[in-house]
Amino acid sequence: MTAQKDSRRAARRRLVQAAILASGLMLAVPAMAQSASTQNWPSRPVRVVVPYPPGGVSDAVTRLVMQKLAERIGQPVVVENRPGANGMIGSDNVAKSAPDGYSLLVVVAAHAINPSLYQKMSYDPIRDLTGVSEIGRIPLLMVSSAQLPPKSVKELVSWGKAHPDQMTFASSGSGSGAHLAGELFSQGTGMTMTHVPYKGISPALPDLISGQVAVIFDSVQTMIPLAKAGKVRALAITNPRRWPAAPDVPTMAEAGYPNIMPSSWIGVLAPAKTPTAIIDKLSAELDAVVHAPDVQAKLIDYGIDPVGGKADQFQAFIKEEAGRWASVVQKAGIKLD
Predict the structure, then answer these.
(1) How many CB atoms lie within 10 A of CB 200?
(2) What is the bridge-based pairing of β-strands 77-81 and 46-50?
(3) What's the pLDDT score for residue 6?
(4) Residue 333: count of CB within 10 angstroms of its CB
(5) Which pLDDT tens digit goes with each residue over 270-307?
(6) Is the CB of residue 249 less than 8 Å from the CB of residue 242?
(7) Which domains does the chain have, with CATH numbers?
(8) Strand, coil or helix: what is 114?
(9) So which domain of life are we looking at (predicted)?
(10) Does this model's pTM top 0.70?
(11) Across-strand partners of 251?
(12) How many CA atoms lie within 13 A of 83 on its CB side?
């Protein structure tokens, strides 16, 4: 009898052990599959979404960088434009894609600003997406009308405080980079400035040239030719160093305002929970692309200061940007929905 009980106990132990082993194997199989998938990345084409229309600088830069990335990783990189809602349509698509390294997103500074401007978003830019690598910073040129007396940033601030009714700044629309740059400058100098929104930068230029608006912040590509032609006055560039195409224009720090550095940026993101190994590999490859001399030369031609860098650095920067612009937006009382 005792022998039978011992036999039954031994049989039960074997069954329990077998169940535990089977359970462990079941848990291990997905992990093993994910590890193999990560090690084999990329084994098929990579999709990169540009949430802006084709033909713009963001699109051109993305195609330049992704062509070089494809050469390095040995797989096609397919660029897909999904414009709309200030970049939120394409961003939402990638945020909800599988976190497997085969869906990426290229964004500009609006990515970090949108949460402050829009109450309702279908995704969280910080929680649902993660930084892979920054391509570069996009400095702005601060220009004033050549019809106005000030010839430096400090002179402009003094003049603006003495003539508050004439201290206006133009932008390409409410919530645009030029709008927020002007608000940051106003808050940083303690000077009252009236925002004049236009439907794009082009309609604002005649009024800037004629002196109907005093100031605008815009890309070096647009403003340097106008400044060289004497139509506007370049006061400063929002970059840590002077721009090669405008070496006589001081940086904002040199102009006396080191804490007022509004600029945009462009970089690559991936869905959150993308395996760290894939993120790190992508980051390293993109960093190598951005630091290639031929790519750097073309980025500068596009008005972009090449950066590169690691994924965690870029993600930390995005979080800092979101906080900085949230403060500006709140103080200015800007809401778009």
Answers:
(1) 11
(2) parallel
(3) 60
(4) 7
(5) 999 999 999 999 999 999 999 999 999 999 999 999 99
(6) yes
(7) 46-138+263-332 (3.40.190.150), 139-237 (3.40.190.10)
(8) helix
(9) Bacteria
(10) yes
(11) 237
(12) 7
